[in-house]
Amino acid sequence: PAPPPLANGKDDRAPLPPPQAVARKEVRRGAGPRNAHERKVLAVMEKVLTLPGLAMHDNFFTMGGLPLLAARLTTLLSREFQVTLPLRALFEAPTAEKLTAVIEALQGAGVGLQAPIACHPDRRSAPLTPSQERIRFMEQLYTGRSVYNAPSAQRLTGKLDAARFQGALREMIRRQPSLRTRIGFDEDTGRPIQSIAASVEFALPLVDLRGLPADQREAELVEQMQELADRPLDIHSAPMMRATLFQLDDNEHVFLFVPHHLIWDGWSFDLMQRELGAFYDAAERGRPHNLPALATTHGDYAEWLEKWLTEPACEEQLAFWRGRLASARAVRPPRTDMPRRAGKSGQGGAHWIHIDLQSTQRLREVARDMDVTLSMLTFGIYALTMAQATGNDAIVIANPVRGRQQAETEDVMGFFNNVLPVSLAVDMALPLPDFMRYVKQELLSMMNHQQVPFERLMAEPGYAGQIKASGPYQAMFSFQDARERARTVGSLQTRHVHVVQHGATDDVGVWLMDKPHGLEGALLYNADVYLRETGAQLRERYLEVLGRVADHPNATLAEIASAEGSASARYLRKLAADGADKGAPAEPLNGGARGAERGLLRPEDAQLAQIWADVIGIDVDEIRASDNFFDLGGDSLLVLRAVQQAAQTLGHRVEPRRYLFENLGQIASSAHGTPHGVPSDLADLAAGTAAHAQRGGLLGALGSWLRKG
Question: Which of 260, 403, 590, 609 has the CB geometry, 3.0–4.6 Å to 240, for a possible disulfide?
Answer without folding.
Answer: 260
